[in-house]
Amino acid sequence: MPTRPPDVARHAPGTAAAARLFLALAASIVGIAILLGWGLVRLAGRQVVVTTNGMRFPPAFVLSSLLLFAGSLALHRAVSWVRIEKQHLFRRWLLISLGLGAAFMGVQTYGLWAMLPAERSAEEASLGITPFVLMLAALHVMHFVVATLFVVLITVRSFRDRYDHEYYWGVRYCAWFWHFLGIVWCGILAVMMIAVT
Question: Would you state the pLDDT for residue 8?
Fold first, then answer.
């Protein structure tokens, strides 16, 4: 019967600390997003624009779009700083993108809540354009949560000096994923604008 390798070889030093840092940072980002969304709901109430066909377009989507594009720019800046080995600036722009991602998720949550009609019936939930647009936006938010967790992972690894000018492909792919989600969001906004007219 083969013997089991020693436990020392199974885990690299610092892995447990990195896992704790990842979980703490991920929980903080999600917590900030939830608190921001809840605060907007409590402070601003339900502010929506209702069109003639019943489609509701929340003004919060304009702000969330700006936050998404600012986060995309922040990740692009992080990639450019790691390429020239400016670790301090690289980490700073990663943290900025995390803050913008949390703000995006909070404002987006408020925007989705504002799209829901105050009085709901089974017929309203299954007919019309609003449920379709809500589904698209909610799917985008779920993918964005994955992208934000990806940025959290990259950030944790950056503080462990994982990336440098020769090895930064994870950062580059993370930025591409965020850029792709920005393009998808533009498509969802286009669908909303077509539905509103």
Answer: 46
For 140, half-sphere exposure in the C-beta direction (CA atoms, 13 angstrom radius) is 29
Q: What is the pLDDT of residues 22-72, one digit of tens each?
A: 777 777 777 777 777 777 767 766 555 545 455 566 778 888 899 999 999
Q: Give the CATH number of the domain where residue 165 resides.
A: 1.20.120.80
Domain with 139, as residue range(s), is 44-117+126-196
Contacts for 161 with CB less than 8 Å, ≥ 6 apart: 87
Task: Report the run of H or E that residue 49 belongs to, with start and end.
Answer: strand 49-50
DSSP track, 50-67: E-TTS-EE-THHHHHHHH
Asked if residue 37 lies in contact with residue 106, where contact means CB atoms within 8 angstroms, the answer is: yes
